[in-house]
Design a protein that fits this description.
The complex is a heterodimer of chains A (314) and B (287). Chain A is built from 13 helices and two strands. Chain A is mainly α and 314 residues long. Chain A has two domains: 37 residues; 240 residues, MetI-like fold (Orthogonal Bundle). In chain A, helix 9 crosses helix 10 and helix 12 packs antiparallel against helix 13. The relative contact order of chain A is 0.12. Chains A and B meet through helix 2, helix 4, helix 5, helix 6 and helix 7 of A and helix 1, helix 4, helix 5, helix 6 and helix 8 of B.
Amino acid sequence: MNQPMVVRAATTTGRQTLTSRRRTWLTAGLFLLPLFAFLVTFTYVPAGLSLVLGFYHYHLMGVHTTFGGLTDFKEALTYPIFWQALRNTIVFAVYMIPATLIGAVAIAVLIGERTKYYAFLRTVVLLPYVTPIVATSIGWLWMFNPQYGILNAILHWLHLPESEWLLSPQMAMPSIALYSLWHGLGFDVVIVISALSNVPRQVLEAAALDGATGWTRFRRIILPLISPTLFFLTIITTIGTLQAFSQIFALTGTQAQAGGPENATLTLILLIYQTAFNYYHFSYAAAMALVLVVMLLALTLIQTWLSRRWVFYQ
Amino acid sequence: MRDRKNPHAARSLAITTYGARGLRALAGLIVALWFLLPLYIAFVTSVDTRADVFRFPPHLIPDFDFHPYVAMWHMAHWSMYFRNTALITGITVAIALTTSVLAAYAFVYLKFPGRQALFFVTLIVLMVPSEALLIPNYVILHQMHLLNTLWAQILPFGGSVFGVFLLRQFFLTLPTSYWDAARIDGASHLQFLWSVVLPLAKPVLLTIGLYIGIGCWNSFQWPLIVTVSHNVQPIEVAVQRLMSSQSVDWRRLSAAGLMATMPLIAIFVALQKHILRGMSRTSGLQE
């Protein structure tokens, strides 16, 4: 389309057009080759492999690979620790999704104003998002310390019962969620603020003139208008929660084995990691990874289906 | 505002708004301090004397004893870990930017059959969950005899669909007359790309580079999986090893954590505008 008229006029015979067209195709091929070399090797082929690896008995140093059918899936599904990991993963998501949505909207409403002061606060809230997870877990480990940590000090000052945090099977997962919120919430806040800035002012002013209170305006106008963004956040929080690895590994790795205490923080991705790279049961781990992917797909579909009830598209 | 005729009402409203404003500013400040607290605690722990670290309630005013930093620097081969991390990040960003620019250019400026279909095939990558790729990619790198090398931490991230997507969006906003003019002057696609398109794309390239670079610098899971030798490992893996070896004391550990965090804080403070722009573009992917 954007071939200039001059050039088109110059190509007098059809043959020339053909060669020039072929030349363009060749250039396109050369330009696309590097990207696709990487994508084929490290995404398309492995994605295909991930679908079949669970059905084979594969050993890195082994002489041959044998077909195992569904045995690895059966084994995974009858292994109690797999179900515990699945439950832990869901529990983690159940903590993270509402906390992320409510936290992000509350903080966005609080610090979304366009003044220098609030811009500074936004910078501070976003800062943890770019920090390395293992390195910043160290400060948190110290905060969680039952004896000397500041969290128990705060509870103590408030005359509330103190907690064992990461050392208690009941509190370990909420503690991980607390770290994850600290690290990631800034991103969600930025996304919600940009959604809030798109809410038309006139609509809000009109509602105020009609006597709508702040809460009514929020509930009836702002929330429906930003609901597509909240849906987007629900999906990416789900994905992020199922992938969460570094913080669990760092915060519980100082105990006997990551995933403790008593396997209370052992999520599917951690179990897959340990099965594959500590015990080298590759096909077994691949079978579990496939279950995790199917679960992610199912959750996304369910959320999409549910979203028809609460997401409002203009 | 509704009772503009009544001066008293207007005044009382203004005062409450004033009070509410102050309250809001204070609440915002508390939230922000909460986000700073873990970094501050790590700082205080790293510069406190031993006696002040183990104290309840916790000691919140730093002693400024920087010995743990010196001790920590000598405990591990930090310059090597920094060099590894910088090499992995730099090469990954360079490769990913090159492949993205070339591909995005082809998708916008070169007419070839199946262009739309191929772009769609590229976008499908965004839907492949990364946890599905851990084991197969490990197996592939094993077959390539690349496990336990720097390349094992670079090559899997050489193709960035996010980068292709953003650059394509940007190229589509450039007037087609630029190419027409360049073509009349006898420029080839590569010349046009290099001397006209790339200089215009600098801000987008910076955004993509930051996004990929920060992710790369902070990556932990993949290096943990594909490396065993210290001499190819990045900082995060080294820090994790220090954490799990029980012999390191809290002050030095906190110092290590902050040394690893510092470069990111510096980058963030210096370039936050570009990072923010990248994030608002990420949310643009939602459609």
